[in-house]
């Protein structure tokens, strides 16, 4: 009989470095790629693999995340399938989740209900395609207590990741340090580290034991990367699964192995630019491994030329349904549903979220505009960064970010 697998998606992260996009929503609920929310990527990976018993642990500003999951991921409950958002519930005492391990501790009832053989614990804020079945098979074959997905990343980013050191066999994890500031590069690639992707497969008993033991430790921060994984590494029971071995149907030579942690405004912006390349670094048009999302009854995008030779155009861009681009030019941008771009406007290298409206003659360059931002006639954004810094958030790489509901003065 096939092994019973329960998937737990950790979606409680605050996402401070994505402010103002996370002002009133959890990081996994941040819109991505026009039509999606970040959490859709992990959920699609699980669903495509046939893992359809999924609980999503939420906490921080979870309203829009809950609503999205309940609306979009409402699945047939035939065969006992479900995708359920579970908010922090204070089941173990009068406190909210202290960290991701505490979130699991407080959710033991869900594991007890399901009695799975293995538990998949995946993060909710990465952009990638992965077939988790291959990792589960690898885990079962090895007999480890936990298997951690690993990927090579630049040495300069070591302080953002759990850094893995493997033994001679290339599988057993010898050391694991969460976000070290003094990491050294790999023997065969001095400017790279082996990073944890924050995706784990556990043998159920081992997970429960480790989490219970951690709960008793009053000095622990109770998070997976900082406490649980190092504990199992110390006991010699943790293995790595190399993400390079993962084969996803329909992936191209160019986007095989793509994985992005979109934790900062610049990485969030860059991951969007990866989508719109002619030969995209990450190909959304892989119909063999679809990314699912909500599909409301929006009409197709429309391009109109109201002013003689002023043709409404979008090039090098992804344009969602419900959009009207009229007598204006949109280049190298991601345009979400129900965006309006009016005559003589020019949008370039930008991410426009749902319902954004760009007035006539406005210029928007290298910017992220959150939901329903209205740019009045003639306003320039991303042209004079000094001026923009006085009113909006400007990232390290000079991307101007305007939050939901923030007013743009004429
Ligand atoms: P981080 O993402 O920094 O590093 P963390 O903040 O614990 O670690 O978040 C991990 C996941 O858990 C995220 O999906 C987050 O949304 C969620 N989460 C955090 N606190 C939670 C809570 N209280 N309740 C529910 N969910 C919660 C992790 C690993 C690193 C690894 C990187 C890869 O710890 O080892 O390298 O991910 O990006």
UniProtKB/TrEMBL annotation:
- Domain Glucose-1-phosphate adenylyltransferase/Bifunctional protein GlmU-like C-terminal hexapeptide: from-to ranges: 299-402
PROSITE patterns per record: ADP_GLC_PYROPHOSPH_1, ADP_GLC_PYROPHOSPH_2, ADP_GLC_PYROPHOSPH_3
Catalysed reaction per UniProt? alpha-D-glucose 1-phosphate + ATP + H(+) = ADP-alpha-D-glucose + diphosphate
* CDD domains according to UniProt: ADP_Glucose_PP, LbH_G1P_AT_C
Which pathway does the UniProt entry assign to this protein? Glycan biosynthesis; glycogen biosynthesis
User: Which residues are listed for alpha-D-glucose 1-phosphate binding in this entry?
Assistant: 162, 178-179, 196
Q: Which residues form the Nucleotidyl transferase domain?
A: 7-275
Biological process, per Gene Ontology: glycogen biosynthetic process
What Gene Ontology molecular function terms does this protein carry?
ATP binding; glucose-1-phosphate adenylyltransferase activity
Q: What is its EC number?
A: 2.7.7.27
The keyword Lipid metabolism is assigned to this record:
no
Q: What class of enzyme is it?
A: transferase
List the keywords (alphabetical): ATP-binding, Carbohydrate metabolism, Glycogen biosynthesis, Glycogen metabolism, Nucleotide-binding, Nucleotidyltransferase, Transferase
Record's signal peptide? none
Q: Where is this site: Could play a key role in the communication between the regulatory and the substrate sites?
A: 59, 96
Annotated family: Belongs to the bacterial/plant glucose-1-phosphate adenylyltransferase family.
How does this polypeptide assemble, per the annotation?
Homotetramer.
Q: Could you tell me what this protein does?
A: Involved in the biosynthesis of ADP-glucose, a building block required for the elongation reactions to produce glycogen. Catalyzes the reaction between ATP and alpha-D-glucose 1-phosphate (G1P) to produce pyrophosphate and ADP-Glc.
| Name used for this protein in its record | Glucose-1-phosphate adenylyltransferase
The gene behind this protein is glgC
């Amino acid at each position: 009989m096939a092994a019973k697998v329960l998937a737990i998606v950790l979606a409680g992260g605050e996402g401070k470095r994505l402010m103002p996009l996370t002002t009133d929503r959890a990081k996994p609920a941040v819109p991505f790629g026009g039509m999606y929310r970040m959490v859709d990527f992990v959920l699609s990976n699980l669903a495509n693999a046939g893992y359809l018993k999924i609980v999503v642990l939420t906490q921080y500003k979870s309203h829009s995340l809950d609503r999205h999951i309940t609306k979009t991921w409402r699945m047939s409950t035939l065969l006992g399938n479900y995708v359920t958002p579970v908010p922090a519930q204070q089941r173990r005492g009068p406190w909210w989740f202290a960290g991701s391990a505490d979130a699991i501790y407080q959710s033991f009832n869900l594991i007890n209900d399901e009695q799975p053989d293995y538990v998949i614990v995946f993060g909710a804020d990465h952009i990638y395609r992965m077939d988790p079945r291959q990792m589960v098979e690898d885990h079962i074959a090895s007999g480890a207590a936990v298997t951690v997905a690993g990927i090579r990343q630049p040495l300069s980013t070591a302080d953002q990741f759990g850094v893995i050191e493997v033994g001679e066999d290339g599988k057993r994890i010898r050391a694991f340090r969460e976000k070290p500031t003094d990491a050294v590069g790999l023997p065969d690639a001095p400017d790279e580290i082996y990073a944890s992707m924050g995706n784990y497969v556990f043998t159920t008993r081992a997970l429960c034991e480790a989490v219970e033991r951690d709960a008793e430790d009053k000095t622990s921060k109770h998070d997976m990367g900082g406490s649980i994984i190092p504990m199992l590494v110390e006991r010699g029971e943790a293995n790595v699964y190399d993400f390079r071995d993962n084969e996803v149907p329909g992936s191209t030579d160019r986007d095989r192995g793509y994985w992005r942690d979109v934790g900062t405004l610049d990485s969030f912006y860059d991951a969007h630019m990866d989508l719109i390349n002619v030969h995209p670094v990450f190909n959304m048009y892989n119909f063999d491994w679809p990314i699912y999302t909500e599909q409301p009854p929006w009409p197709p995008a429309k391009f109109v030329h109201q002013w003689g030779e002023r043709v409404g155009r979008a090039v090098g861009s992804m344009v969602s349904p419900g959009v009207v681009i009229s007598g204006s030019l949109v280049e190298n941008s991601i345009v979400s549903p129900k965006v309006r771009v009016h005559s003589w406007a020019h949008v370039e290298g930008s991410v426009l979220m749902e319902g954004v409206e760009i007035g006539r003659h406005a210029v928007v360059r290298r910017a992220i505009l959150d939901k329903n931002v209205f740019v009045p006639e003639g306003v320039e954004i991303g042209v004079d960064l000094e001026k923009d810094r006085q009113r909006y958030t400007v990232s390290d790489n000079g991307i101007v970010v305007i939050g939901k509901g923030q007013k743009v003065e004429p």
